[in-house]
Amino acid sequence: MKYRELNAPSMTFYSLAGCPHCTNALPSFKEAVAHSSINSSIVDNTTPHGQKQIRDAGITSFPTIVGTKKNQNYLYRGDRSSESFVDFANYLK
Which domains, ranges and CATH numbers included, belong to the chain? Predict the structure, then answer.
């Protein structure tokens, strides 16, 4: 991965396995990422690595969506529709 790609705007979806809110929001998040062509990742608590990432990020409620732009983190606070996720992605670009 190139340095520029590491610093590109991105969105991370933190989820908890079995959480109905996460299960309902994830398809909209995936759709938004496909439409906006932003770097993204999905982190869940089903692996030790995912659990560590959640702990290190200080995530306490699920789902939590965090956007990164120019090494600054932004907590998403909108509704969980794909349109709102796309708007957030566009803001990060």
Answer: 3-92 (3.40.30.10)
